[in-house]
Specification:
The protein is about 30% helix and about 25% strand. It is built from 14 helices and 25 strands. It has a six-stranded mixed beta sheet with strand order 7-11-10-1-8-9, sandwiched between helices. Helix 7 crosses helix 14. The protein starts with a strand and ends with a helix.
Length: about 500
């Protein structure tokens, strides 16, 4: 069922935008439409896109502000170029290129969760369509809703619809153009546009301006997240110091990734998962992404990693790919590795999907169960150590190092069967104290995957390093990985985002 559709037109307070405030600091306002045929009823300060393209900027022109009323539904349309040219000419403009891209959405529609807008809705909504123009609306019951939409997606013309379906209510927000308005909508719009030429825009005050917007994907429900709250807050503060606004978002809140300049995934990744889909969508939109989708693909599947380790001669435990639980296979594995032996699912994190078997019967049972879930299972020689090394590598450079000790009375770092002794202790140390063999193995393994942020797990036995896996979404917790570098660890990671953002450009 489709509830009222609103046409929202105007300017409201937005932390990165301009808004109407008083009758001072006057600027010359130009209304830009797609072609001359639309100028008949518009005020004298209205021009066509062709005129704005060829006649501006003018020598000695006054300070200009542009209200772009062109159609921006298509990428590289006249409306798109109107805002792009305005920004290049240092003309104040609505909508901005950032907002045009944000409003492109899925088929030109952005969906806002009704929970976000609930405080701005009346108990009952009129079924009649409403026109909201320059912050004014005939039905006062829609005014708060219009302001909320503008605070999120400031643009001169928007169509907003409240849609009710089986999943609940959602708000659809879509960009509109002057050409598509009805006669009644144009009349109301014209009055507001005429009034608007008498007032000026001022930049929002009291809010720090940021050059870049970074979405940090988190999952509040995750039991073992890659970063704890202390680390997340430090990422945000480090970003602020570098001119990057870091916004925590969940997958449900990330309706349109293109409204951001970058995506930082701090949720455990998987291939058949929204983390991978969002990373791929963000990369397709040109965002700077960590973890990038290629890194997720390569790190989340141990078959790829160990095959690459073998071909590129990265030191790693002896490994076999197993596709059968036949007696012949069981005998061959027992002969090759002996007992205990380690079996691994190709995908898994935080020690999940890893099993130690001590007898042929256990091997047979575990292997049969695992092959029901995956066509391949990894079998490895068991190597006992008191701790595993974890080396954090960012863009080919080691930035932190930890020793993670085994959980009490357990053979792994994490014991998912125990709440009291879930994980073991740790030591955090400077990377220059790493054994050379461990450091070299970590850097070589990371280079096989890419230039992102990785955590390389390594066992050290009799002075030799053996790479267990490369994690594309390594743990960075306040009080653990940051013990040695402190705030500098977060600054280094945010600085890499800044470097990539600046290299990419706006």
């Amino acid at each position: 069922m489709t509830l009222p559709t609103l046409l929202v037109v105007g300017l409201q307070l937005h932390e990165t935008s301009l808004f109407i405030q008083g009758y001072f600091l006057m600027l010359t306002t130009l209304l830009v439409v797609d072609d001359e045929s639309q100028l008949a009823d518009l005020p004298a300060n209205a021009i066509s896109f062709r005129s704005y393209l060829h006649d501006y900027p003018k020598l000695g022109e006054p300070r200009l502000r542009i209200i772009n009323l062109c159609d921006t539904d298509r990428y590289l349309s006249q409306g798109y170029y109107c805002s792009l040219l305005a920004e290049a000419r240092s003309h104040q403009v609505l909508p901005s290129i950032r907002d045009i891209n944000a409003l492109r959405g899925d088929g030109g529609v952005i969906w806002m969760d009704v929970k976000e807008i609930a405080p701005f809705l009346q108990d009952e909504l009129s079924a009649q369509s409403q026109l909201v123009c320059m912050g004014e609306v005939a039905d006062a019951g829609f005014k708060k809703l219009a302001q909320k939409v503008f605070a999120t997606y400031p643009a001169p013309l928007l169509r907003v619809s409240l849609i009710s379906d089986a999943g609940g209510a959602r708000l659809a927000v879509a960009r509109a153009s002057y050409a598509e308005l009805s006669d009644a909508e144009r009349g109301f719009c014209l009055e507001q546009l005429k009034q608007h030429t008498k007032v000026s825009w001022r930049k929002a005050s009291g809010r720090k301006k940021y050059r870049w917007e970074l979405a940090m994907l988190v999952n509040p429900e995750e039991k073992v997240p890659p970063s704890n709250r202390g680390a997340l807050s430090r990422f945000i503060k480090a970003g602020e110091k570098l001119g990057i606004r870091v916004t925590q978002v969940s997958a449900q809140e990330l309706h349109n990734v293109s409204q951001f300049d970058g995506l930082f995934i701090r949720e455990t990744t998987a291939i058949d998962h929204h983390t991978f889909r969002l990373a791929r969508a963000a990369e397709k939109q040109g965002l700077v992404v960590i973890d990038d989708p290629d890194s997720i693909l390569r790190c989340c599947n141990k078959v790829f990693l160990h095959d690459a380790f073998n071909y590129q001669k990265v030191p790693s435990p002896q490994t076999e790919f197993v596709s059968s639980d036949s007696e012949e296979t069981i005998d061959a594995l027992a002969h090759q590795f002996g007992f205990p032996m380690v079996l691994k699912m190709p995908e898994g994190s935080f020690s999940k999907g890893v099993f130690k078997v001590k007898t042929k019967d256990e091997l047979k049972t575990s292997l049969s169960q695992l092959l029901e879930q995956s066509a391949l299972v990894l079998a490895q020689r068991y190597m006992f150590t008191d701790y595993d090394w974890r080396v954090g590598v960012l863009n080919g450079r080691a930035i932190y190092a930890c020793r993670y000790y085994m959980a009490r009375n357990h053979w792994q770092i994490y014991n998912h069967e125990s709440k009291r002794n879930f994980s073991g202790g740790f030591d955090t140390l400077p990377t220059f104290e790493l054994p050379k063999t461990v450091l070299n193995a970590a850097l070589k393994a990371a280079a096989l995957v890419g230039n992102g942020l990785y955590g390389i797990d390594i066992k050290e036995v009799e002075g030799k390093a053996y790479v267990l896996e490369v994690n594309d979404n390594p743990s960075i917790d306040h009080g653990v990985e940051d013990v040695y570098l402190g705030e500098e660890l977060y600054m280094q990671i945010m600085s890499e985002f800044l470097r990539r953002l600046e290299a990419r450009g706006r």
